[in-house]
Each structure stands twice: as C-alpha cells, then as structure tokens.
Amino acid sequence: MKAIQKTNAARLLETAGIPFELLPYEVDENNLAAEHVAEQLGEPIEQVFKTLVLRGDRTGLFVCVVPGNMEVDLKVAAKISGNKSCAMIHLKELFPETGYIRGGCSPIGMKKALPTFIHESALLYDDIFVSAGVRGLQLKINPEALIRFTGAGIYPL
Length: 157
Fold this sequence. Notes:
Elements: H1 8-16, E1 20-24, H2 34-41, E2 49-56, E3 60-67, H3 74-80, E4 86-88, H4 91-98, E5 116-119, E6 128-131, E7 137-141, H5 143-150, E8 153-155
Parallel strand pairs: 3-5, 5-8
Antiparallel strand pairs: 1-7, 2-3, 2-4, 6-7
C-alpha cells in the first residue's frame, strides 16, 4: 500500500496540534457523491460531511459543511450568513476561489479563510469525516475541534 500524501489541510491541523486521522478511499470519477464516500469508508452517511461553497448577495463567499445525506437549505444558509439570498457557486469558480476541486473541497486550508458554518448535527458525534482536500482522502476529526479551528458558526437544523 502506498503512503498517504499529507494534504495542506492535514499539515495545518498538525501545526495547530489538532488530532485527526487521514483515511483513503477508492474514488469513482463518475460518482463523487457523499454516499459513495460513506460506503467506501464503511461509515454512516450522517457522519460524512460535504463542504459546499456559496455566494451571498451581501457578504460574498461562505462555506456550509453539511451531512452527506442533506441538501443545504438556501434560505437558512442566507440567514445565518447575513445575506438576503445565496446560491451555490458555479463549479468553474470552485478551484480559482478555494484551491480545491469538486469532490475534494475541504473546510480547512482554502486559499483565503471564508466564513464557515457547520451543521449542528456534527456535534452528535465524537468524530466526523470531511474532505482532506483531495479526492480519495478524508479527515476524521472531532467536530468541536473543527469548529474551533475554522472559527465556524453552527448551522441549525
């Protein structure tokens, strides 16, 4: 088995002294869905979180980290981020804005720090899974540590 390459997100957590685990999984280019990642990891989909980047009409870009089995509620996302409305950014904007690609977008280590909101259900678990910043690699991390590190707000149900 080849060695796991450390990502920028992992290096940032390591530097901050935050415990985490890197977990590789088999990538299916035709299925980048969180369900596939959860299946590959053998973990419940509710614990595998996806990182979504949105643009608000007032504040610009922000991030919502939601369970893999949920869609982001745009009305709630707009409200918690101080916007009247918001929408997902276009796929072609993802890499230039964050430095990450679809299926490998981590809430940690984006090009610039963006306001981040993590779904409150994350607090139900000792650990959650988020992208490590590349396809095929997840970070297993304590949700409270992730919230503290990213300065995230809590995204209500």
